[in-house]
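**Backbone shape codes:**
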Amino acid sequence: MPESLEKIINYKFTNSLLLAEALTHPSLAYETQRPHFDNQRLEYLGDAVLQLILTDELYRRFPAFGEGRLTKVRSRLVSRDALWKFALQIKLCNFLLIGKGEESSGGKQRASNLADAYEALIGAIYLDGGQEAAKTFVLSQCVSAIAEAAHEPDEANPKGRLQELLQSISQSSPSYRILQQEGPDHAKTFEVCVEWKKTLLGCGRGGSKKEAEFDAATQALNDELWLTLKNDP
């Protein structure tokens, strides 16, 4: 007999409808003509709960970190790529309720769908069991990820991180474009933008093309503007 999701996450729901709602992708709600029963509202709530739990945990765990470093660590932990990996840890793809059309196109494995369902699950646990229950679940999942994110060097390749993250959502790769370059040959300044799916994700400046691209990728990682496209094909 397949292992239940409640057993995997070590949490038993009092209100099982909340769990069903968290696992229901909008495509199934559309096909069954139940437009108000999908995981989008719970995803919205879960995102806020996750941010609060991690903000509190990082603040307490790393008293020597300044605001900037705390923000960077949290950004890595709540990125689409990180949430997708957390969802895979609990085999969430096996429990996602999804429309036939979306499933036929690989929707159960799609990173954006799994990340959204993971946030919705956090929202459902929060409503069912309160903040402590949600905190217990989140931190049990994030223990090693917090340590890794906190000790990842600041000079880590932001272009590589951005490409890996975006390609976990879609096969499309980000592209970089020089907007302008100014100054004499020995002291040029480059301004570069990074785009994905015809959307501007960030801009950066630097004394070389590579440096400007790194700066643009860093801004893109901080702003996460691709989230506005997460439901696009």
About this structure: The chain is about 55% helix and 10% strand. The longest strand covers residues 175-182.
